[in-house]
Write a structure and sequence with these properties.
The complex is a heterodimer of chains A (498) and B (128). Chain A is an all-alpha fold and 498 residues long. Chain A is built from 21 helices and 2 strands. Chain A has a two-stranded antiparallel ribbon with strand order 1-2. In chain A, helix 7 crosses helix 8. The longest helix of chain A has 32 residues. Chain A is globular, with a radius of gyration of 22 Å. Chain B has 5 helices and no strands. The radius of gyration of chain B is 22 Å and the shape is elongated. The N and C termini of chain B lie far apart (62 Å). Classes of the chains: A mainly alpha (498), B mainly alpha (128). The interface between A and B is large, with 37 and 41 residues.
Chain lengths: 498, 128
């Protein structure tokens, strides 16, 4: 059974090989290869998760035969394997549900290259969850950014190229800060592997030496990865980016890529900087404040939009604000809520984008609410799936969204700071009302009587991939909501070994 | 304070260079200037890393025929490795950014990102 400890390395090599092979295959074969890879990855990571959970400990996997501090290594943890299994499954569902859009919207060889980029995103997410080396993390953060820009810019129109350019500009600001943070940390400690880094930083913190460069390095890492994942006020690229490309790209970017950077940040907090340094330095208060402002700014932005895709993009900014708010709230309760929010949002947002894509196609590519009237009555399943996912975002009991709001509320009440308690509860209340307002408006519009007569009804045979994906997303969302206790236990136990 | 700055002058120069690159990337409207800013930022990080790795009087860690003579004669090879990796990443991101800039210029005949944004906003208003 210890053989399964090799799975992450095998999957990394397999994903890279799949990306290379896909570049010379026809689009259909490349899609089959990508889907098979993602299914194998989900299954292999699930097996590893079960093995590590039974053993109850994390494993440091040497890349070669050189132990620390000489060699590079992976850290195989229970939470890491759970996250990668879930992310592989979600990416599989995004590609399956959006296959029709990729086939019809992308010209020439772009279809095949789309799957090359999807494989590269997958390998990046694997490495971000498993690596124990901060510089390897930086390299794969950049690979992930380039591949993400690739899946954004695959359409031949100016708006998508502009969206990809803006995404790259914001990402490069974040990357620059993260790289400089690594350089500072290496200069201060002489280490790049997270366990060594943690030991050295703890000594520096205790002695009180090099306090300013150390805090600068930690701040730069938080800000850099925050900017890359869309933290306020650097969330403005999201509305253009998610609103103009093909639907699976919006799902993968909002559901997985932005979360991958946050997973790396959480790993750095627990394994690299140490939670003591982060929570005693006061940096967590800035992260908390930016998160809270992101929730409100994103929700207001969504309410002002009349384009359904841009509305959902702004909603993503608000949901990412929740994650940063949780990280800033507290080391255990807050981060647990943030991780649960990562899972809930990763399951909800791609499903919302896929449903919106189908509803838009049903109405001849309409994006504005006035032209989407009655879309749900022509495509019942997409309408129902959109309604369910929207209700989950609002926080309907039994769905994953409800548990997120409950966790944040409970952690706020347990917070030793009255200011944070009141602010968190106020943010949850205001954002829930705003969530309800803009999603209810969207639901009412898609179920209203249509104003147009020239409606093209989508053939069910073409969209069977979407039906399967949408159904699995709904089941997983309900499972996360109903069996929240089990998942919370996995997160809490996993955080101790992360 | 002044002595510390003089002793770490290369690192100070790298930080100043990083600030110049960061501001250029953030503030300038011209896409090419943004790309130049990105490259200055990456170069600053590489300069910082290279300065850490260099120790006056020591040599590159290449194994001589007679074997290791004295480990203290060599510099740490890791920073040089990191600089090389960072250069590769920087080249890739620059290439992608330039590709996008060319495609945008061919379509909109300008490299000013604000002007391009204004045009696409108008296009968006005409969408269904």
């Amino acid at each position: 059974m210890t053989f399964c400890l090799n799975f992450p390395l095998f999957l990394i090599v397999l994903s890279l090989a799949s990306a290379v092979i896909s570049s010379i295959l026809p689009a259909k074969a490349a899609r089959i290869l990508s889907l098979c890879l993602l299914l194998v990855s989900a299954a292999a990571n699930a097996v590893l998760f079960v093995f590590l959970r039974q053993n109850g400990e994390s494993v440091e996997y040497l890349m070669g035969h050189f132990p620390r501090p000489w060699g590079n290594e992976l850290k195989l943890s229970e939470l890491g394997s759970f996250i990668t299994a879930l992310f592989a499954l979600i990416e599989f569902l995004c590609l399956l549900g959006g296959a029709h859009q990729i086939d019809t919207r992308l010209e020439g060889s772009f279809g095949r290259y789309y799957y090359v980029m999807a494989d590269l995103i997958h390998v990046s997410l694997l490495v971000l969850a498993y690596t124990n080396d901060i510089f390897t993390g930086y390299v794969f953060v950049e690979i992930c950014t380039l591949a993400s820009a690739g899946i954004l810019a695959v359409r031949h129109n100016g708006k998508t190229i502009l969206a990809a350019t803006r995404y790259m500009i914001y990402s490069q600001i974040g990357s620059g800060l993260f790289l400089f943070s690594i350089v500072f940390l290496y200069n201060l400690t002489g280490h790049l592997l997270l366990p060594d880094l943690k030991e050295s930083i703890a000594v520096l913190w205790k002695e009180g030496t090099y306090r300013l460069p150390l805090l600068t390095a930690v701040s730069f890492a938080c800000l850099g990865l925050g900017i890359k994942s869309g933290m306020f006020p650097f969330h403005l690229w999201m509305s253009d980016t998610y609103g103009s490309t093909v639907i699976p790209s919006s799902g993968i970017l909002s559901g997985l890529v932005s979360k991958g950077y946050i997973i790396l940040l959480i790993r750095l907090l627990f394994d690299g900087f140490g939670t003591e340094v982060f929570y005693q330095s006061g940096i967590h208060n800035i992260v908390y404040l930016l998160g809270a402002m992101g929730v409100i700014a994103g929700s207001i932005g969504a309410l002002r939009e009349n384009n359904i895709f841009r509305m959902t993009a702004y909603s993503s900014a608000a949901q990412i604000g929740y994650i940063f708010m949780g990280i800033g709230l507290s080391a255990v309760g807050g981060v647990t809520a943030a991780l649960f929010q990562i899972f809930a949002h990763a399951l909800t947002k791609p499903a919302l984008f896929l449903s919106e894509g189908i509803l838009s196609d049903t109405m001849d590519g309409a994006k504005k609410f006035c032209n989407l009237q009655g879309a749900a009555s022509y495509n019942h399943f997409a309408g129902a799936a959109f309604t369910f996912e929207a209700l989950s975002m609002i926080g309907l009991p039994l769905t994953a969204g409800f548990i997120v709001k409950y966790l944040f509320g409970r952690d706020a009440l347990l917070s030793p700071s009255y200011l944070k308690m009141i602010l968190t509860l106020a943010v949850i209340a205001v954002s829930t009302v705003l969530n309800a307002l803009y999603f209810t408006r969207a639901i009412l519009r898609i179920y209203n009587r249509p104003q147009r007569e020239d409606i093209r009804r989508v053939r069910i045979r073409e969209e069977k991939g979407y039906f399967a994906a949408g159904l699995v997303f709904i089941v997983l969302n309900l499972l996360l909501g109903i069996q929240a206790g089990t998942f919370l236990q996995i997160i809490r136990e996993g955080l101790q070994l992360f | 304070m002044l002595t510390a700055l003089c002793n770490n002058r290369i690192q100070v120069a790298a930080v100043m260079l990083f600030a110049v690159g960061f501001t250029t990337l953030l503030v300038h409207k011209n896409l090419l200037k943004k790309i130049i800013g990105l490259n200055i930022m990456d170069t600053a990080a590489n300069l910082f890393l290279a300065s850490i790795g260099y120790i006056r009087g020591r040599t590159a860690p290449i194994l001589p025929e007679q074997g290791i003579v004295d480990a203290s004669r060599y510099v740490n090879p890791l920073p040089a490795g990191l600089v090389l990796t960072s250069i590769v990443v920087s080249v890739a991101t620059t290439a992608v950014m330039l590709t996008f800039s060319i495609r945008l210029y061919r379509r909109y005949h300008t490299l000013n990102i604000d002007e391009i944004y204004a045009i696409t906003e108008k296009e968006q208003e005409e969408e269904p």
